[in-house]
Fold these 2 entries.
Entry 1:
Amino acid sequence: MIEAPNQNFVREIPKEYMESLARIEAKEAAEAEAASAAKKAQQEAMQAQITAAVDAAVAEERAKASGDANAADAGDTVGANIDWSGVDSVDMTLFYPGQASFEFVQNGKQHGGARPLTKGGDQCTTCHAKELNNIGNKIVKGTDNTEPTPIPGKRGVIDATMQAAHDDENVYFRLQWPDAPHAPAPFVDGGKMDPENQIKVAMMITGTGIKMGEQVGCWATCHADNTYMPFDPGPEAIAASGDVAEMLQAKQSIQKYLSETRTKVEIKGRRGKAQGGWNKLKSAEEIDQLLADGTFMDLMRVYADGSATNGYLLERRVQNDGDITASAKLSAGMWTVVFSRPLTSDKPGDVPLEAGKTYTVGFAIHDDFSAARFHHVTLNTSLALDDETAQINVVGR
Ligand code: HEC
């Protein structure tokens, strides 16, 4: 009797509740429909890619059979001694970071993870490894804090695969990712920021003695006053800086740099202060000492025609004489970039790669004729020779 429903407590369900329930159900149905449409589109795209790859392979075989060497394959000599089919590949998500600078990530007012990053020793991947799709797809559409000039139709993430190998002398990297339709940048004439290069690939290797270098990877070099960043000082302020502009070889804008090369880098930006520290340059002697101590970011860049440059980032971007060879190829909707350099090098600005050590590296792809910050990047990524515990295991061959 006690358990029986008490008629005195009967209440009508409020109209607002029913309406809101209907709204939520409609919203969820729409979301499910969108998700299923997106999945279908993805499957179709993949099918198209497979078909194209098969067509290309057939054409290639025919060309070989008729003794007609494919000119585009000339670059395949880089890493030709490596049987890539026997090298495991690692999935890498490169996401679109917008204007999220090293200052931004350290500033609690701008970034939710600032404190655990600066005080707790967390790495970027500690919090973000699994949500790069969300972050990239959100920023690329435009946000108040991190993307004031979105490029309509640009993708938010690039799903790439990486294979890495070494022999006694050299290290070899092979990066592959799907091409995407052109999305013109509305803020440049013709929509292509770098019309010469449909793609570019960059790799950084973190040197020693860089504050938070192992936690943040490339972010150690990305500042709020770099090119196309919110506190880009502009050509007039650069020209007025005299010696600083000369030392940085800067005219239009400021390249990436390490905070270690500056006497002060503004993070908080209170009372309208510009974030960054482009003009707070240390002396040439101090900067030379950093280079001698290994405090720099090794930087390799590959261009769309397969040419490549070796260098490093310190007070600015510097090209050095370190060896590097590369190839870049678009085939059946897939980009394949292979590059190689000596494991060890006596050139200042090259981080030697030694067995038994783990390195923090980062990769960037400049997709679709983009330049400067309009790229896709990895978070901090670990790399080691013949070590399965590293994200990128560079296997001996
Ligand atoms: C302790 C966890 C934590 C760490 C470590 C961390 N973050 Fe975050 N990050 C967050 C939180 C929380 C947010 C806010 C999420 C939101 O707004 O939905 C965020 C947001 C972001 C965003 C999105 C900004 C936007 O406009 O939406 C970017 C980009 C980002 N973090 C990059 C980084 C990078 C790069 C690092 C390493 C240098 C890093 N984070 C380290 C927790 C973290």
Note: Residues 97, 100, 105, 111-113, 116-117, 122, 124, 126-128, 135, 138-139, 143, 145-146, 216, 219, 379 surround heme C (CB under 6 Å).
Entry 2:
Amino acid sequence: MKLFKIQKNVWLAVAALGVVLFVAACKKEYIQNVNDVCFQQEVLPIFQSNCTQSGCHNSSSRQSGYDFSNYEGIMRAVSPSDYKGSTVYQITTTPFGIMPPSPYNRLSDEQITTIALWIDQGAKDLPCQTTACDTTNVTFSSSVLPLLNTYCNGCHGGSSPSGDINLTNYNGAKANAVNGKLVGSVKWVSSYSAMPQNASKLSSCNIAKLEKWVALGAKND
Ligand code: HEC
């Protein structure tokens, strides 16, 4: 019967579309590009900022035996070249991901991509390519906020930011620029707490960018 045939085809088409959508949803791919990922500059800051809070995976708390403040500690949860088989990938991605727990924010898709790509490339700690420090066009949106997101906002974000200092938005960053704490803490001036906590000092280039933004009036540019 013709009518039945059409209905059957429509039904088949809907079913096929469903299968395609289901497979696509299950196969979310985090690896989308082929640039070399540098461990010290791109991967380590993600772990230090998002996993090493007090009571978590730093060298004194070592929650669940993990210290994610350095390469050796991170490698205990990594299977080189097998990101899907790596603990750090499994515990940070949905549907089973449980880290970082509340009140901290989950990792962004971009951060997970960086980690997955680094693991896929062998999870090595190779020297990074050095680029000349360029502080000519420092703005809040293009220089300062990305820097704070990378190095600081695992702790200074979420629903209960460390030290009650939220650096995920302009107002929070500006307040700490004006009171001197932002520059004082990253330059490890003795009257301030040295930041980023549980990590090495920011590069002189990154410190220079923050200083320049503050010196030019900490604008919302
Ligand atoms: C692993 C967690 C962690 C990271 C990463 C981190 N902070 Fe902090 N930060 C804290 C905690 C906890 C406090 C509050 C206790 C203290 O002052 O030591 C704090 C305090 C501060 C303060 C107040 C300092 C003072 O002397 O009053 C500033 C400013 C600050 N952080 C800026 C930053 C910046 C900028 C970065 C990134 C470059 C950063 N933090 C990275 C945990 C962190």
Note: The two ends are 67 Å apart (CA to CA).
